[in-house]
Amino acid sequence: MNIYTERRKCMFCYHEKLTPLWEKNFEIPLGCYVIPTPETVCYSMPFNILKCEGCKSYQTQYLGNVDIIYNYHANSHGTIRSTMDELFAAFITSNTNISNIMEIGGGNGGLSDIILEKQPKLNYTIVDPTYSGHMNGKTILRNYFENISTDDIQVDTIVMSHVFEHFYEPSKILEKFNQCSSIRSIFLNLPDLESYIQQDNYHVLNPEHIFYVENQFIIKLFKKYGFTIKNIYYHQKHSVFFEFERYLDNICNDTLINYKSETDVPQFFERIFDKIHNIYEIIEQNSDKKVYIWPCSMHTIYLLSLGLNPDKITAVLDNAPHKIGQYLYGFKKICIPFNTILTSIEPCIVILNGGCYNQEIIDKGSDKILFIKG
Question: Pfam families of this UniProt entry (predicted)?
């Protein structure tokens, strides 16, 4: 079994001159999920970031085996994600000309349930090899979209919610959309990568979210493949909703380039290394305290992979029921509920590492918890 492959050309413009961000590779686990026991086999791969010298996109150098990376089912999410699904569903159904939807990556079915509740007469197809939601009123294709024939895409609308950033070859996906003449609209919900970088949210440029581009770049990229922007909505510096519609003019001379990435991305990683240094200083000054880290997700895997010593961590904190009592993939640290340390009489340190999800922990804090925010 191949654990990973190495990228040789840009995923967007196919430029072959790619410059590594670091001279020496780090190492990162492939999975960003929980495992039942510390004995569960985990896989790792080298980790580095490549800058395309053509379009100035940043993308991961090594690509993990998707069957390992996505060896889990999507579960329930927090308030931000639930609110996002409600808003994105409203964003989609405001278009009254939709008859047939194909959602790529339906996850736990949350978004499709809301859309079908609003528009029960829609024909709804989900393409997802690990779909785990309700099936009523839906056609489920348990496969990766890359393996779906264009003959099976007889729909007028494509929906993608936090999926596009996972594609290893996104330009080929867009070419496939372009070739399917029945597709008139594309609704894209993308992590707000620009805000992620600026707000130090670590769920960007990792084994799942494998590229960094600016929002204007996304708009020009879709236009290159025949879909122009019709509507856009920003959700809490967390996500961006795009509505694209097919246009007949196939001539697109827009320059595909990221204008600020050469500054923003290196500075993002510099701040990560500064944070790790700061964490070590605080731990040393409070050597009598146990150290926990929030949350049990890629945010934490990222920090541990980039230099934070896992031996310093007592346990990982999270509030998701399906994670409690499980172990963080790759580092095999047990996940416990945040309330455990709230009810403990022992002072402790909590490393806040969840980006926009940190606030729910800060609001529940107590005087005996020393938070490290950055």
Answer: Methyltransf_23
In whole angstroms, give the CA distance from residue 362 to residue 369. Answer: 10
Instruction: Answer whether the bond into residue 20 is a cis peptide, omega within 30°.
Output: no
Quickly count: other Cβ atoms within 10 Å of residue 61's Cβ. 20
CATH topology of domain 287-372: Rossmann fold (3.40.50)
What DSSP character marks residue 290? E
Distance CA 316, CA 335 (A): 5
Residue 201 has pLDDT above 60, yes or no: yes
Query: Whole-angstrom Cα distance, residue 299 to residue 163?
Result: 18
Structure tokens that stand for 205 in this block: 């440029």
Structure-model confidence comparison of residues 49 and 202, the more confident one = 49
Inter-residue contact 176 to 155 (CB < 8 Å): no
Helix (H, G, I), strand (E, B) or coil at 103: strand
d(CA 26, CA 195): 25
Rounded to whole angstroms, the Cα distance separating 209 from 203 reads 7
Q: Where are the domains of the chain?
A: 4-64, 79-248, 287-372
